[in-house]
Amino acid sequence: MEPKPFAPIAERLIAWQKQHGRHDLPWQNTTDPYAIWVSEIMLQQTQVAAVITYYLKFMQRFPDIASLASASQEDVLQYWSGLGYYSRARNLHKAAQIIMQQHGGNFPQDFEAIQALPGIGRSTAAAISSFAFGLSQPILDGNVKRVFARYFLIEDWPGLPRVEKTLWQLAEAMQPESEMGVYAQGLMDMGATLCTRTRPRCDICPLQEDCGAWAANRVKELPASKPRKAVPERTVQMLVLCHADKVLLEKRPESGIWGGLWSLPELGLEQDGAAWAMQALSMPSSGAEPLVQLTHVFTHFRLHISAQRLTVPVLPLQAQEPRWQWMSLDEAIHAALPVPVRKILQVLAKQHHVVSNAHQGQLALI
DNA sequence: AATACGGGGTT
DNA sequence: AACCCAGTATT
């Protein structure tokens, strides 16, 4: 019988977490499942530093499930604008309404019920479960995958379904008997602060003594990186239709990119803006001028945007569909917009500012 | 099993 | 410029 040479990793991580983990992030030191839930959703594929200010503003505006559930989707998206992965916000909102209707306004405490809420998968359900309720469910996020890929010397890319299955099994097997929340936090904090992708701090790692990658001198190469394909490129034209101090925005469909956000009309590069405005919106326009060109990079493609400004002297008599809306420039910039659209409108606002200053100057001269 | 879904940070 | 990040839902 071989004696166990080292303490279980859960034991070491719990001790490490208590001494060296992070303890004062805005969503820590609470067992309020709502506060924890919001943080976990924001932290999906998004780093702590980027989340903090969004989280504080969001919690101030939507302090509890009821206030979130009763808000408009528009309002919720506005507080998410700039964070990305907008389905997270739509699902959060939808889930709050489900909790009001199906759980009497109380966050469910059953693991399956938690995971059944939209936007909450196995790992997020496990994180909420352990932090808020002390349930024993394994988490498996990017940090855990990296720590395990190194500790267990897993050579293949952790995103492979076969490897992922193994990782979940390991995650289950490593669960402690108690202190679930401290363990889960320790695993993630260790991954985020010591077992980092580059320049990991193996010198002070509580798992170094029996880490497979450390023993094999393979830490730098693991975890294996995702096999990449060339990212496609797309070029579009965006129209900034201006009438007096207002611009025309279009609400995007629920599903697909930038779902539910306000954007600008998109055209192929070959199409003529004025002709399109006349045909699609019965809107005469003139004075087309290039406004700005920019490139927006997504995970899965690169989007080149060429923004054109058009002046609409007279509004058509017929009311437009509700997905079209004239907003003042100031109003538009504060709406729920994707980042590149906000940038385009800021360029316009800057021009507007220069023009109105020149105008004021003229008035002063007269 | 593969793909869609953002934006920001690091190197 | 490549790569990654407290993943989930859809196809």
Describe this structure in words.
The chain has 366 residues and is α+β, with helices and mostly antiparallel strands. The protein has two domains: 9-141 and 165-194, Orthogonal Bundle (Endonuclease III, domain 1); 233-364, Nucleoside Triphosphate Pyrophosphohydrolase (Alpha-Beta Complex). The chain is built from 15 helices and seven strands. Strands 1, 2, 3, 4, 5, 6 and 7 form a seven-stranded mixed sheet that branches. A hairpin with a 4-residue loop joins strand 5 and strand 6 (302-311). The N and C termini lie far apart (99 Å). It binds a DNA duplex (11 and 11 nucleotides) through helix 2, helix 3, helix 6, helix 8 and helix 9. This is Adenine DNA glycosylase. It holds the Pfam family HhH-GPD.
CATH top level of the largest domain is: Mainly Alpha
Strand content: 5-15%
Shape, per Cα inertia axes: elongated
**CATH superfamily grouping of the largest domain:** Hypothetical protein, domain 2
- Topology, number of strands: 7
Largest sheet: 7 strands, mixed
Query: From the alpha-carbon coordinates, what is the Rg to the nearest angstrom?
Result: 26 Å
Number of domains: 2
CATH architecture label name of the largest domain: Orthogonal Bundle
Runs in which pLDDT lies below 50 for 5 or more consecutive residues are 358-366
Give the N-terminus to C-terminus distance in angstroms. 99 Å
Q: Output the CATH topology of the largest domain.
A: Endonuclease III, domain 1
- Share in helix: 40-55%
Instruction: State the assembly state of the protein chains.
Output: single chain
Derived structural class: alpha+beta
Number of helices: 15
| Arithmetic mean pLDDT | 91
- H-E string: HHHHHHHHHHHHEEEEHEEEHH
Protein name: Adenine DNA glycosylase
EC number: 3.2.2.31
Enzyme class: hydrolase
Family: Belongs to the Nth/MutY family.
